[in-house]
Amino acid sequence: MSRSSLGLGVVPTHVRRVALGLATLASAASCGGGLQMEPRYVALHNTMTALGMVQSGGLDQGNLSEGQETVTPVDLAGGDCVTFVALGESGVGDVDVIVRDQAGAELARDRTQDAQAATQFCPPYAGRYQVAVHMTRGGGGYLATSWSGGARTYAGPGPGPVEGPVGPVAPPPHGGPGTCDEPWQLAASERRRGNTSTGDSVTSASCISGGTAPEHVYSFVVEQRSLVTASLDSMYDGALYILGACGDLRSELACNDDAPSTSHSEASATLEPGTYYLVVDGFGTGSGEYEVSFAATPLQPPGELCRAATPLVPGQPVSGSTMGQTSSFEGSCAGRGADRVYTLDVAQPSRARFRMQSSHDGVVYVRSDCASASSELACNDDFQDTRHSLTTATLQPGRYYVFADGYASMGSPGAAGDYTLDVELAPSGGTGAAGDTCATAIPYQPGQPITADTMRFADDNAGSCGGQGSPDVTYRLDLRSRTRVRASFGQDSEHPPVMYLQSTCGDARSEVACLSAMSGGALDQTLNPGTYFLVVDGTDANAFGTASVSLQLDDLGALEQACRAAPMIRPGTQVRADTTGSTDRFQASCGGQARSPDLIYRLQVRRRSLVRLSSEQTGWDGVVYLRRDCLDAVTELGCNDDAGDNRHSMVETILEPGTYFVFVDGYAEGNQGPFTLDVDISNP
């Protein structure tokens, strides 16, 4: 290692101008590499000068091999900030600048990984410190100097600098132990340094539940409604949380463990005027040195935000963003992120549907009184996924307030981003559209899916499993033969729907069956020829919107004919066939109900036997099942989807003498193709 010491030592009252640095750079060129780095140094000088900074130290030049470092003692005044800079030659991969105290403890360092380094250090007290230039990767010549003045950039022990003007770092004040009983006082923009190893382990929070690390407690006062953001840089896995009542975990307002690394934590909350408590804690049993501060940004009173709310026009979606906004309101379904508020004027009793699509985990909610959380009428976080929200409400004439918000769990900052918000209104008495009454029931076309939007329909009917007070839409089923009717709800329904079958529309006594989506399952009925009515309804007055229904009508005469025509299979003989071209006539208890095309075979057993049915499918997921009665699903004796993998299925059971029916089907929907089926019979 070679070095030409040119005076890195810094005393802020003794400012050397950049001319000294340039002259020294030129005179040192013969020592190797000085002129090579002169353009970079000039560019550095121009940048630092533009930031309002002046060179406060001379140039330090030398050569270092990988892993080596050179250390220079410097005398610094308390509270002043100095930026140390190092430039490496072409052979340098990564050079770092590190500031340490006299005992060698690291106080600040560069976190980049390239051939130049910069770190700012704001000494908490006047004294002697150590500045090291460390060659982390590569090797070669370097230049180092220092600059003073300009906006402060704190480079703590976290993953990178935290920019912005902050107050001087100070140790915790004397006179109190930093506990809930005697907390240290903390002012906005004031940085405090401490070491939690001197604290007690008394309190905890949601983001470090179960931890036993010691903590320090600070109190702070909020003079007006503000967004408070607390920041912690720690030499250990620290945690930070805000309490309304010290020691009472139920009063937790924000909590954060890692943001984004274990050495930095940040917690934010919208606070009303009052005294609060900021707790510096640790994950698990972690403790050590830290620096903590908080900033308070005054917020507009809710009343002002409400008066400035943007009007919504039904049917005209609006787009916006909550990025850069504060959390001024909160919904009951975890809407504590950044938010925006809109007004909605309703002229007549109406049903309202609110939809929001967002780039983040959004939340939408509705109030009748903008500033009163207790006036909330509806709130939704996720509809189908975290990027969609949907809620409905029945509204009387008046003004309402709609909030575009973001999800936030206990202790985590709320989500924010872009969104599109849309509202629809419909008269609460319905519009008289087709399907609104028994007389205008919509004829069902077999094979067609049903998507019913009940929002614009009247409340005409109710079933035994629900529908009282909810709008409904009616479909007419004209059955010309004995028919099996199967119906189930899709996963994309906008509300918890119900449906019921009646033989006389509007007559609850004629109900054949009733199904609620909340109870799950499917409606499955065998009906004689005639006219029936399928009503799609909701669970309550606000349960309206789209509901998807899968409806299948099977002519039992045709099914009976298919069962009678089923070919006989002989044990020991392999069947080769293909379900492609068949239809979905039968379902099973396994394999996603086996709603794919199927083939049927008859099997005759002459004496009590152990029967093994095994199939192999080529390129598709098959299902094998066995029944005593071809048409009756409750007589199923065995069902298997996967035997080792999804290309094999096997059923093995003991059968008494008689005739049975073997089905080769496909998993769920759309699985079909060629297969082989083997039947083996042996003594049990």
Describe what this molecule looks like in 3D.
The longest helix has 13 residues, at 38-50. The protein is built from four helices and 48 strands. The strands form eleven sheets. Strands 1, 2, 3, 5, 8 and 10 form a six-stranded antiparallel β-sheet that branches. It folds into five domains: 2-163, Jelly Rolls, CATH 2.60.120.380; 169-298, Jelly Rolls; 306-424, Sandwich (Jelly Rolls), CATH 2.60.120; 442-556, Jelly Rolls, CATH 2.60.120.380; 566-682, Jelly Rolls (Sandwich), CATH 2.60.120. It has 684 residues and is mainly beta. Helix 1 runs antiparallel to helix 2 (38-50).
How many distinct beta strands?
48
> Which shape, going by the Cα principal axes?
elongated
Beta-strand content bin: 35-45%
Q: Which bin fits the share of residues in helices?
A: under 10%
Residue runs with pLDDT of under 50 for 5 or more positions: 1-35, 151-168
- Summed over residues and divided by their number, the pLDDT gives a mean of 86
Task: Specify the CATH architecture of the largest domain.
Answer: Sandwich
* Alpha-carbon distance between the two ends: 88 Å
CATH class of the largest domain: Mainly Beta
Q: Which fold name fills CATH's third level, the topology of the largest domain?
A: Jelly Rolls
Helix vs. strand class: mainly beta
Radius of gyration: 37 Å
Compute the number of structural domains: 5
Please outline the major beta sheet.
6 strands, antiparallel
Give the count of helical stretches. 4
Please name the defining characteristics of this protein:
Jelly Rolls; 5-stranded mixed β-sheet; elongated; 48 strands; disordered N terminus; 5 domains; 684 residues; 6% helix; 6-stranded antiparallel β-sheet; single chain; mainly beta; 4 helices
